[in-house]
């Protein structure tokens, strides 16, 4: 299973994508390290089983990505072991390596999912904190607006009314504002 690149659509996605790309890079490094280790092990095993003229010739024949002058060089058999035994040993090594890579990829995917979950949860927590802060600011602004309206209504009471009438109107305004 391969992971697809993450395309950011919004600012939130962009914030998440940086962490996603970092985790992807770590996983790629780990996989490349494993493949390099397998390549070295395979080279050592093959050189023990078969006699290669030079290590660089062997690497050119088996691992070259482009055609080189070493492609037509034959690798002589080491007469110490029969051919079938050599092939079986090499196949065992390859099976072990493929199984190790399969297990590694499964563990890597589990690790990736756990890391990404952590990143997403942290991101969500930060976003919720920002929303709570914004909500508190909006709540305070709304309360200030209500207080200002109440003050304006109290100031709008005509001063020529009696004290009892002014107190009654203030109580009405206070009840309306709650």
How would you portray this structure in words?
It is a single chain. The protein has 178 residues and is mainly alpha-helical. The protein has one domain (11-177). Helices cover 76% and strands 2% of the residues. The chain has four helices and two strands. The chain has helices at 11-49, 55-63, 83-155, 163-177; strands at 50-51, 76-77. It has a two-stranded antiparallel ribbon. Helix 1 packs antiparallel against helix 3 and helix 3 (83-155) packs antiparallel against helix 4 (163-177). The longest helix is centred in the last third of the chain and has 73 residues, at 83-155. The radius of gyration is 37 Å and the shape is rod-shaped. Mean pLDDT is 76; it is low at 67-77.
Question: Terminal Cα separation, in Å?
Answer: 60 Å
How many domains? The number is 1
The residue ranges in which pLDDT falls below 50 over 5 or more consecutive positions are 67-77
Question: If you average the pLDDT, what whole number results?
Answer: 76
Number of helices: 4
Helical content stands at over 70%
- In total, how many beta strands? 2
| Helix-strand makeup class | mainly alpha
- Neighbour order of strands in the largest sheet: 1-2
Sheet of most strands:
2 strands, antiparallel
Biased composition (Basic and acidic residues): 144-153, 162-178
Region (Disordered): 142-178
């Amino acid at each position: 299973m391969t992971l697809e690149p993450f395309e950011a659509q919004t600012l939130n996605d962009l914030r998440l994508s940086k962490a996603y790309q970092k985790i992807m890079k770590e996983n790629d490094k780990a996989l490349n390290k494993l493949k390099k280790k397998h390549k070295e092990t395979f080279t050592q095993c093959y050189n023990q089983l078969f006699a290669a003229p030079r290590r660089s010739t062997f690497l050119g024949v088996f691992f070259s990505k482009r055609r080189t002058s070493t492609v037509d060089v034959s690798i002589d058999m080491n007469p110490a072991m029969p051919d079938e035994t050599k092939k079986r040993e090499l196949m065992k090594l390859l099976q072990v390596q493929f199984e190790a890579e399969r297990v590694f990829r499964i563990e890597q995917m589990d690790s990736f999912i756990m890391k990404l979950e952590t990143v997403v949860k942290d991101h969500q927590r930060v976003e919720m904190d920002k929303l709570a802060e914004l909500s508190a600011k909006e709540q305070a602004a709304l309360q200030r607006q209500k207080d200002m309206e109440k003050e304006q209504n109290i100031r709008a009471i005509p001063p020529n009314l009696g004290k009892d009438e002014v107190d009654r109107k203030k109580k009405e305004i206070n009840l309306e504002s709650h």
